[in-house]
Amino acid sequence: MDNNILSLSLTITQSYGYLYLIHEESQSLDVFKNFKAEVENQLSNKIKAVRFDREVERRNRTLKDMVRSMINHSTLLESLWGKAVKIIVYILNRVPSKAVAKSPYELWTSKKPSIRHLHVWGCPIEARPYKPNEKKLDSRIVSCYFVGYFERSRGFKFYDPSTRSFFETVNAKFSEDVELKIVDTLEVLPTQVMEPIQVHEEIYKDRSRGILGLLQKAYIDKVLSRFGMSNCVPGETSVAKGDKFSLHQCLKNELEKKDMERFPYALVIGSLMYAQVCTRPDIAYIVGMLGRYLSNPEIVGYSDSDFVGCLDSKRSTLGYIFMLAGGEVSWKSVKQTLIASSTMEIEFIACYEASNHGIWLRNFITQLRIVDGIEKPLRINCDNKATELYYKNNQSSSKSKHIDIKFLVVKKEFIVLKYQLNT
């Protein structure tokens, strides 16, 4: 078969392929005549035109690539490439393509092809060939390889490497799922455990259910002992019916934070999360719910201003900075737009600029969904007691009548608890 020349004829309209293996190019005309007679007899139509274009060349290249892969995957000789390419064309005629949803076989014959009989080319087979001169004590089974299909029947073609011959039969047992035998020539190191080892998680086995798993009871007991909860009364459920959680329940002042340092809340939640992920799905809800309230981040602002820092324009320079979760997130320093007559007035203007930016910053962070929500009022710190008293006093005095009305907006925001001012 080494001298075969690959010749492929295609029906371009439906991509159904015919394959013929010939020894010489001079046989191409006779092969085409046989092909023409067979196709015209099947379709009851005449071939009107014959095209020789790149379609055949591309198809031949595809077939060669597939043959190369099939031979490398199997253990058969390269001289059997002719059998491989025939089975490739056989399969391609029965599978759809990206261009057409139906297979070429279905388009050609108007019948849906069956693929139940398809097998891996080159797989080992135990087959029983027909032997007319077979004796009673002769072996009836031959170890061979699958190489093709019958064209118009349900049989298969096999190759017997012992006799280097081909035969056809329907009596065969395919061994496509047999695991590969690995011959390990390396020295096997001893794996015997000479002393007991300590396993932190208990392993349990249920042969009837086919289960091998972990039991973290020892880990849970260790967590309870670590946080002094071994003597707690157990409950039927992880959370009582009707319990609700809110950010308003978080710590509200420094005194509460100082008192809460005695309870390692975050460590308890983190320890339970390990058990939740591994073996305790029943506590997933409550652990995830409590984990949302590990902290309640708030925005804290600081504002300040000098007094007549610019000797040329007699104007003051203000500055403010905002912190979230202990880190700086926004800051600014700018010269004031007016000339103030007192330190209270310049500090008041600085707080105005800081409060405007702080309210926008809180809304912006909430929209980014960095945190679930910032429930606490915006807290701004300044270093002028007179400014704080003027904020909290809803009355006007002769000393503050000249302050622009736009700066008085912050007093209204203070009244509706959008922020609070501390010194």
UniProtKB/TrEMBL annotation:
* Signal peptide, first to last residue: none
Domain Retroviral polymerase SH3-like, by residue range, is 131-179
Q: Which Pfam family would be a valid example here?
A: SH3_retrovirus
Gene Ontology MF annotations: nucleic acid binding
Domain of life, per lineage: Eukaryota
Annotated protein name in UniProt = Retrovirus-related Pol polyprotein from transposon TNT 1-94
Native source species: Vitis vinifera
Q: What is the lineage of its organism?
A: Eukaryota, Viridiplantae, Streptophyta, Embryophyta, Tracheophyta
Q: Give the gene name.
A: POLX_1538
